[in-house]
Specification:
Blueprint (H helix, E strand, L loop, with lengths): L2 H20 L2 H5 L2 E11 L4 E6 L1 H14 L3 E14 L2 E14 L2 E15 L9 E9 L5
Parallel strand pairs: 1-6
Antiparallel strand pairs: 1-2, 3-4, 4-5, 5-6
């Protein structure tokens, strides 16, 4: 796998997290294919999705963000990547921090399991076609 592909996939995952945290829905939307799917699975059995389509994903995030009264920071780590042609599969860890009432706390950990489509040579254009978020703990 080329360094360019790895870098491009890391970038799109980081842009997704940043777009979510900063409320930049245009940035977030640009991370997904038009036909993307997103689902969230919590260890307590709660499931959201699958939400189908980039526009529906953006609306889900918009609605979630409106209900939040804290500041969230999604930190991604431990990326493992498989790549073949114009397809890639990424697995990485998530640590979710929240800032509220003058305090910082980690509220959950989990995994992102992503399927991506893009340019075989890694020259940009990579987008998430499926994102499964698995959270280790429920939180509000």
């Amino acid at each position: 796998m080329s360094a360019a592909v790895r870098s491009a996939v890391e970038d799109v995952l980081a842009r997704y997290a940043l777009g979510y945290d900063e409320g930049d829905l245009e940035l977030l939307a640009d991370c997904f294919t038009a036909d993307a799917e997103l689902s969230v699975h919590v260890a307590d059995g709660a499931v959201t999705g699958p939400v189908r389509g980039r526009d529906a994903i953006v609306e889900l995030v918009r609605g979630t963000a409106r209900s939040q009264r804290d500041r969230r920071r999604h930190v991604l780590s431990n990326l493992v990547l498989e790549h073949a042609g114009d397809r890639a599969r990424a697995r990485n860890y998530l640590t979710l921090f929240v800032v509220a009432d003058g305090a910082l706390r980690a509220v959950t950990t989990g995994r992102y399991l992503a399927e991506l489509r893009g340019a075989p040579d890694g020259a940009g254009g990579w987008r998430i076609s499926n994102l499964r978020v698995e959270l280790d703990l429920p939180f509000s």
